[in-house]
Amino acid sequence: MKNNIAAKTPRHEGLNYRSDEFVTNLPPVPAESQRRDLTTRTYSVRIDTVNEKERTVDAVIATEARVLVFDWNRWEIIEEILLMKGCRIPADGQIPMHDTHDRSTVQKQFGSTRNLRIEGDKLVGTNCFSTSKETEHAWTLTREKHLRDNSIGYKVYNPVMISAGEKAVVEGREFQASANYDLRISTDWEPKENSICSIGADSAAKNRSDNKNNINIRKDSKMNKFKEWLTARGLDFDKLNETTRAALQKDFEDEQKRTADANKKPKEKTGDSADDGGQRTAVNTPGKQLTEEDIKRATADGIAAERKRIADITSLGGEDVKAETINRCITDGLSLDAARGEILKDVREYRSSNVKNVPAGIAGGNMTAGRELIEDALVLRAGYEDVLLKDKANGEKRAEAAGKLRDVSLEQVCRMALQIENRAIPFGREDCIRAAFSTHSLAIILGNVANKALLRGYELLPGTWQKWCTIGQAADFKTMTRVRLSQNSTLQQVGSGGKIQSGSTEEEYEQFSIATYAELLPFTRTQIINDDLDALTRVPQGMGAAAKALIGDLVYTHLLANGTMQDGTALFASDHSNLNTSKALSAENLKLAITAFGKQKNKAGRNINTPVRFLIVPPDLQWLAKELLKSSTIVIAGAGDTERGSLNVLGGENIEVVNEARLSNTSFSNYSTSTWFLAGDKNLVDTIEVAFLRGNQNPTLEQVPMASDVLGIQYRIYHDAGCKALDYRGLQKNTA
What we know:
19 helices, about 20% strand, five-stranded mixed beta sheet
């Protein structure tokens, strides 16, 4: 819609005049120089508390009663509840007191309202009148109990809006909007000023309501008179086209005005042709039939007026106005003002998109609640309902609420982001997207959705390393030292003297550090226009899976690399008694390996007696490994074999097969299809530690600046991790 509509439409934004009983549809207009950012409500002072000496009177300024106000931002009547717990009382407990909300000059300030305080569900204050000459009249009327009505002005921050007929829980309390009005719950508001009013907004509202009804009656009566006027001239209202009817109605109204003006003049000056210069007597003479010339003349004038009406209404069209609305306004013969009213409905609908029936939290509501609702809707649209249901307490409720927005487009998300921050929504798509990119809400919404997809991908991808590796944390990126102590002695018998012998330990240690691995995730204007949700969900999910795979890559690269330990010897070496060569996987070789594993000793020469817990093999050996460990019997072929029992003793061992494809992947150094490993229980012996910065095992997503020549939002995904074998005694390598 074109901007000239807003310029021509008188709007007193933010100045809602409200009481606990009534609503005023159109408030009295303060001076134009004043800021139009306050809501007001009337109240009655406690006349019995008048203190003439102190020039004060007490008043209940506001309550938690549900009342009607006019919301200038939405251009409609709504209900409102002020929660007292959300009232921001000024530090000094005082606000200025004006003459009927006139803040244009200090001459209109009568004093102040002081000692603001909450008493239960009420805001109470004391009106203090100054001794100035300008205030004296108002103080006299107050103490003489003539002036009883006051009106307080307050500002609302981040209210929660509940659509008509909907329910919502706000601040732990359940509220339901009525069937006819949206409900605004003001959880954060601040009294700004107080006013002395001769007539409170409640009375003004009642008068205006009566006047409105009277206007409607007069309008109907006027139409009936016009129809009678046409009938007297032999014309049928219902058979006239809109153009001719409009032209004749103008003649009728002109005649009515001339008649009214004539009635104000002395009788001797009235006559048949008085006040019209003798012109158009055929039209103005009651009961006289209109001539063909009269109708032609009226029609010509009407055509010119109709052309102007059509041009004016057409000029009101735009992207935010439906074409059928413009056509209907033209064909129904609506006046320019009436057409503006119809078009304004389209503008509101266009701006709210599909949000009108959405639960509270988006349009003018709580920012956090609004953003979470949109995020949940996008998650549902991506098919990630399981992400919401992980919230055991509220997952189902969140999914139900977000279901109303399940089909939301990314362009609509841009509009909602602007609505959440109470910012103007540009009419064009390009302008809207550009404006949305400047908000915090859009970046938070898109980032949170991408992060949910990222973590989903990270969690869904299985990792074999987690079974046999320990997990640690790093405070920073500096080299870390992991110390291991070996007991040299054992408990000694205490003699009759009661003296206890001191033990000794041997110290071993390993050192390593972690590093950062990262990737950028841009989200551009093109992807929003294309409604490319996959760029926000499937791509980050793949990046999450890649982050999980990265840890596996680090672990198995380290395992295959057979790096040097702190003692100067490779991880797997004969000196460490954990390297068996020419030992292809078989029942006998597995038994020998398990036996050797159990003979490992600590630095003090004591057996650690750690059992084998995992058999780690490439996919090429997985079936043989399972047969060896799970078969009830082992069949040994060949004529030279000696007799032996049929029990598979390996099946009784608590050993789990770990099938890891990286071991035989040609992209990994030292890969092999026949090498296999044993690992002990990570809770009893050190194997490989995987460390994360400050223990954060999940990858991190955060917003970063986008290049100035690209319109969009950019995120970076990074993971801080590293790994190191801590004790050769917990691992064993066997080659074919």
